[in-house]
Amino acid sequence: MKLNRKNLRILLVDDDENDTELLRIALDEAGFTHPLTHFRNGAIALEYFKYTKATGSLVPHLILLDLNMPLIDGVRALHHLREVSSFRSIPVIILTGADDKAKRCEAAKLGIFRFLTKQAHNKNVIAALDDFIDFYNHEDDPPGMRRNVPFVIHHKGEVGLSRNARIHLF
After folding, report:
1. pLDDT above 70 for 155
2. Cα–Cα distance between 111 and 131 in angstroms, integer?
3. Hey, what long-range contacts does 18-23 have (CB within 8 A, 24 or more apart)?
4. Within a 13 Å sphere around the CA of 68, how many CA atoms are in the beta-carbon half?
């Protein structure tokens, strides 16, 4: 199945309701029509993954994960997610309003697709989602093949490539 803006299953884990609503509006305006699954913290998201594993429900194609949340923050949630084999390969885009270099480095070591600082207009998020769709639909690779993916860090208007992170597309 080819991914596009209409069928991309996105899970958003973010405790900030204003950021969530702004992202919903940006996704809608950009033509992302599949319903956004949203949880307010990492603990609830981890319960969701236990449920989807147990029931065989559809997992998201991509996770948008905030770093700073109550109960279980983004890095701890990502650690737990990477420990579950059936969810280890789900690509993650980190979203954060604060620049915590230690958390950024730890998340990068766990394998993320992008690291983005939150902005009100969300154009970097839309661009990252389009990049993911293009990457997922790459026709030269057989389905499920592991590839090295350079992930991009967007920070205060600067863009830089990090080391390659390995992700597995399902």
Report:
1. no
2. 16
3. 19/66, 19/95, 19/97, 19/118, 22/120, 22/122, 23/64, 23/122, 23/125
4. 11
Residue 62: which H helix or E strand, with range? strand 62-66
Residue 98's φ and ψ, nearest 5 degrees, are: -120, 150
Higher pLDDT, 92 or 1: 92
Model pLDDT for residues 116-141, shown as the tens digit of each residue: 888 777 899 999 999 999 988 986 65
* DSSP 8-state class, residue 84: S
Give the H/E segment covering residue 107: helix 101-109
| Close Cβ partners of 119 (under 8 Å, ≥ 6 residues apart) | none
User: CA 170, CA 91: separation in Å to the nearest integer?
Assistant: 10
Q: What is the DSSP letter of 162?
A: E
Reported confidence tier of residue 40, pLDDT bands at 50, 70, 90 = very high
Strands (E), 69-144: 92-96, 114-117
Query: How many DSSP H helices and E strands does the chain contain?
Result: 5, 7
CA–CA distance, 71 with 41 (Å, rounded to integer):
7
CA distances from 57 to 49, 54, 97 (A): 9, 8, 31
Determine the residue type at 112. I
- Integer Cα distance of 78 and 19 in angstroms: 20
